[in-house]
Amino acid sequence: MNKNDVKKHRSQKGLIDPKQTKTYLVYHETNLLTFLKEKIPNQSQHNICRIIANHQVAVGGAPVSLFTYPLYPEDEVTISYRPIAKHERHNLPILYEDDDIIAINKPSGLLSTASDREKGRTAYRLVSDYVTQKDRNARIFVVHRLDEDTSGVLVFAKKWEVREALQNHWQEIVKKRGYYAIVEPADIPERGHLVDYLAQDKTLSVYVTHHPSEGKKAITNYRKITSNRHYALLDVTIETGRKNQIRVQLGHAGYYVIGDDRYGEPSNPLKRLGLHAYELDFTNPLNQKEYKINCPIPASFKKLMAGEPIPLPKKEKMNHGQSKKKR
Question: What DSSP state is assigned to residue 98?
Fold first, then answer.
């Protein structure tokens, strides 16, 4: 999160207050009622059913009211002292959806999943509310994450076996992770291939270390698309998925992503981080279906760069969210 971001006031109605909750981690496959009977044995089954029916239980920050709701390892079940409202989602920025996955254009300033400080207002909850309003038995699973202040393509699985297949083979199945980044100063070289080792300090900030044994290898490639007097717009691809790697590696090279006060002190003309995930290409290892999911550059990025046209990299032309299957 960036301290200099301007966060709009939002209603707290229906959100989860972390100070009035208790959270339990799931370690094996089960269902909601069975799990809660194990975790709160001092409560009768009748009382537990009443808590669930009263919308006081959430999974991954999304409210659940189905007693037989399936739970899987790494799920987080939260019990709230007050009801958690479920909201209908009609304007969710969906990029692509099929029986296995759903992809959205995540807004900047929205967490991908629940954290200690934010349990309710997340991309996970928005998408979960959307799928369960169509089918109360439906659910979603986390495949990957975007930083809170990064916008762009975010994918969730709609089946446990799909989530497991994608997560367990992520590095092998992902062909491209493309980002637009606006940096300052504007005199960054036309192209770059950055290889560094990244470590994390006690404050959870990431930094470049010169000792490979202390960090994890991070590889970032970029190409300058255009620039003006103040900023340069980059097409960035990453070969590794380290925390904050684009911001850290570019900053270490002396070029800072605008709006990022965690790894430098650049200007903040957009009142948000100048980083947008525009494309994610991957293959589902269960059926070899190939996905090429992309979303347009934010209008604010174009405006800042003097309105110059920003084309996607020249590759096979496909519509946003289109997928293809190997023959």
Answer: -
Question: pLDDT tens for residues 76-106?
Answer: 999 988 888 766 666 789 999 999 999 999 9
pLDDT digits (tens, 9 = 90+) for 23-54: 899 999 999 999 999 999 999 999 999 999 99
- In single-letter form, the type of residue at position 244 comes to N
Does the structural domain 18-80 have CATH classification 3.20.20.70?
Answer: no
Using CA atoms, how far residue 45 sits from 32, 71, 80, 251, in Å, is 12, 18, 17, 55
Neighbours of 189 (CB within 10 A): 11
117-150 per-position pLDDT tens digit: 655 678 998 999 899 888 888 999 999 999 999 9
Note the pTM of the prediction, 2 decimals. Answer: 0.82
Phi, psi values for residue 225, rounded to 5°: -85, -50
Give the start-to-end residue ranges of the domains of the chain. Answer: 18-80, 94-162, 170-325
What would the two tokens of residue 22 be?
A: 């208790």
Rounded to whole angstroms, the Cα distance separating 106 from 94 reads 9
DSSP code string of 6-49: -PPP---TT---GGGEEEEE--S-EEHHHHHHHH-TTS-HHHHH
Question: Which amino acid is residue 275, in one-letter code?
Answer: L
- Confirm if 98 and 162 have CB atoms less than 8 A apart: no
Q: Which CATH number fits domain 94-162: 3.40.50.360, 3.30.70.580, 3.30.2350.10, 3.30.365.10?
A: 3.30.70.580
Task: Give the Cα separation of 278 and 65 in Å (integer).
Answer: 35
Give the homologous superfamily in CATH for domain 170-325.
Pseudouridine synthase (3.30.2350.10)
Burial class (CB in 10 A: 0-12, 13-18, 19+), 317: exposed
- H helices of 120-243, in order, are 123-134, 160-168, 170-173
Those residues whose C-beta lies under 8 Å from the C-beta of residue 175, and which sit 6 or more positions away, are 281, 282, 283
User: Which of 185, 251, 264, 184 has the alpha carbon at shortest distance from 218?
Assistant: 251
